Each structure stands twice: as C-alpha cells, then as structure tokens.
Amino acid sequence: MIWKIAVIAAVAIVWLYELYLSLLSLRSKNNAIPPCVADVYDEETHRIRLLYHREKNRLSMLRATASFAVEIVLLACNAYAAFAGLFSENQWVQMFAVLLLSAVASLVTIPFQYYDTMRIEQAFGFNRTTVKTFVFDRIKEFILQFALMIGLGSMLFGLHRSFGDWLILVFAAFATLFMLFITFLYPFFSRIFNKFKPLEDGELREKLTALLEKNGYRVRAINVMDASRRSTKANAYFAGFGKMKTIVLYDTLVESMTPDEIVAVFAHELGHGLHKDTLKNQLLTFFEMLILGFLAWGTLKILPLFTAFGFQDINYGFALIVIMSAEFALLAPLFGLLANWFSRRAEYRADAHAVKEGYGEALISALKKLARQNYSDPAPSPVLVALTYSHPTLAQRIDAIRVPEARK
Ligand SMILES: [Zn+2]
C-alpha cells in the first residue's frame, strides 16, 4: 500500500509542477520589458500576444489535469493489472498489454491538441493544418510513440533477463545507442510528415555554401521543407553526422527572412558544430540514461511495487510507466535545471561564432523576427528561464552579441 501511495503522490507532484510552470508563464506579463527588445512588438501585437499566451497556458493546464486524472484513475483502480489479466500469462504479452493501455490512455490529450491547433493557433493566424493532416499526424504519432515504448520495454525486459545487476550500465549504453539511432533516423522520420525540395540557386545558396566550406564542412544538400502545410512558424536545422551536412530550411523561413538573416542563423548553427555541442549533448544523454538505468534496476527489485497495483509478478511495461511518469518525471526538473544551464551557455558561444563571421547584427534581426513569429515572451520570469529555457532570452542574447562582456 505504501508503494501505491508513493507512486500516486509522485504523479501528483509532477502534475502540480506543470501547473506551477504554466502559472509562472502567465504571470510574466507583468515583467518590465528590456529596452533592447522594446521594438519587437508594437502595442497592438503585444496585446494580442498576451491573449495568445493566456489561451495557451490555460489549455496546457487543462491538458495536464486531464492526463493526470486519467493516470490517477488507472493507478488507483489497478487498471493496468486488470487489463493485462485479460490476456495470456506470458510476460511479453503482459508487457504489451500494459503499454497498449497506457498508449490508449494517452489519447485523452487529442481533444486538447485539436483545440490548440484548430482553435487557438487558427484564431491567431498561425495554423495551416487541415483536419485531414491533423488526423493523419495523430495516427502516425500514435504508432511511432507506441513503437518507441515497445522498443524501450523490450530492451528493459531483454537486458534485465540477460544481465541482472549489470542492467544499469548496459541499459544506459543501449538506451544512448537507441537515442543516437533515433537522431540518425530523424531525417527519415521527418519524411513521414513533410516533403523536401532543393533550394533554388541564388544568393542564399551561394552564401550558405561559402560559409560552410570556409569552416571545413561539406554540403550534401540544401533542402526546403514544406513546414507551411502546418504552421506559419519558422525554423531551420542541420542534419547528418560529421563533416557532411544536409541543411534543412523551413519554407516559412525562406519566405520571411533576408539571405543574410538566414546565413546568420546558420553561422550560429556552425558555432554549435565547431564546439562539438552535439557530442556534449550526447554525453549528457548518456548521463541521463545512466540515471534511467539505475531507476530501472531499483524498480525491478521491488516486487511490492507491482503487487500494490494488482500484479502477481514484476511487469516490464508497468515498470516503464512508473519510471517515466513518477520516478524520472520527479527528477526531470533537477535534470532540466542542469541541462538547460549547459545549453544556454552553448547558445551564447554559438551566437559568438555568428558575430565572429560578421553576422552579429543580421543574427539580431533574425532573432527578433523569429521571436515575433513565435510570439516569444520578451520578459519571461527568471525562474522559468532557469528551469525550462534551453536558450537565453532574446534580450540576454542581444546584449551578449553587442557587448560580449555583458554575458550573464
Ligand atoms: Zn543554438
């Protein structure tokens, strides 16, 4: 019984923490706006932006509460064990059954996602997703997520059976490889959701190629992705390992920015490449997976944790659910604090590289455009920044680009 209370309490704390983050975000509207970002929004846009954020935050609080309610009912009623009891006693089947119920329960967020995309994003002019695209996206997402959980669960099962107490290290190593594999497959995954075509010849293509070659990279392809099918929001990224790079530009970015601004964004991305930030992130991922491995090892040792929820024996699917939604979720804020601090420092260094390439002012105007397009908060709460921001605030970045010594 004590385990049942502990797990439910952990899930409740995770939910309260999510509400707290939304409240912090809602309350930042009263913060003073730094002078260097005062020109990002005019008064009317600023007013609309506040309405947008209020709607978004309220919805995310409702969504978190709905997921929490479903999770609590399933846990309190021993629904996982009851559902698994309908099937054969084979432990693989038992794992599949628990993960299936969990995946189906996660569908409770779909109405909220629908309201988010079709009502809020629509009302504020961001949305371009049709109902058909939305439905197919959710189906693809469901299949991918379920496959991911089955993959992790099977790995946990197999490794625990074969390696016993070595589980921690072996799990961390395998999970990191698994994550790398997912990163490696990302370009293929994105082809499930989007279409790509090569960037036309011209100033932009020449400048991007020149910048990359100057820094010792080779460009495999520069592709434009049809992001405008879903949203007006803009982005860009590098894909591929090592020195061969594929550049992906959202069509929304190409439409809304000057060639210099886009090249400035890539000079920033190159800064990440030169500082081996991806590699450092992978080390951090390994550390995270080590914690996950430790939690998995500990969880599988506690039979009463499973019997408290109606199981006869340990269940690998249920172990995964408890680790993800209670144990690891409880540690996530601490880990986020550390990881985001590292990440923000890396962002400053990447910006500094863009400055070095002579794209400082172009980067500032690009960042301002991105902020405007995404309705970013010009003056977020410092607590929220510390806990959840992987990038420094716009004002902090502009200050550091203009006066590097002012870096906070
Ligand atoms: Zn960056």
Any key phrases for this structure?
5% strand, mainly alpha, 4 strands, globular, 16 helices, 408 residues, 4-stranded mixed β-sheet, 2 domains, binds zinc ion
Structure in words:
With 408 residues, this protein is mainly α. It folds into two domains: 2-176 and 280-374, no CATH class; 196-274, 2-Layer Sandwich (Zincin-like). The chain has 16 helices and four strands. A four-stranded mixed β-sheet has the order 1-2-4-3, with helices on both faces. The longest helix is centred in the C-terminal third of the chain and has 41 residues, at 316-356. It starts with a helix and ends in a 6-residue tail after the last helix. The mean pLDDT is 90. The structure holds zinc ion. Zinc ion (ZN) binds next to helix 10 and helix 13.
Order of helices and strands: HHHHHHHEHEEEHHHHHHHH
Report how far apart the termini are. Answer: 48 Å
- Beta-strand share of residues: 5-15%
Tally of separate helices = 16
Number of strand segments: 4
| Small molecules bound in the structure, each named once | zinc ion
Low-pLDDT residue intervals, each spanning 5 or more residues:
none
Classify the oligomer.
Answer: single chain
Biggest sheet record: 4 strands, mixed
The 3D shape can be described as globular
How many distinct domains? 2
Rg? 23 Å
Q: Considering DSSP H and I runs of 4 or more, what fraction of the residues is helical? A: over 70%
Arithmetic mean of pLDDT:
90
Alpha-beta classification: mainly alpha
- Spatial order of the strands in the main sheet? 1-2-4-3
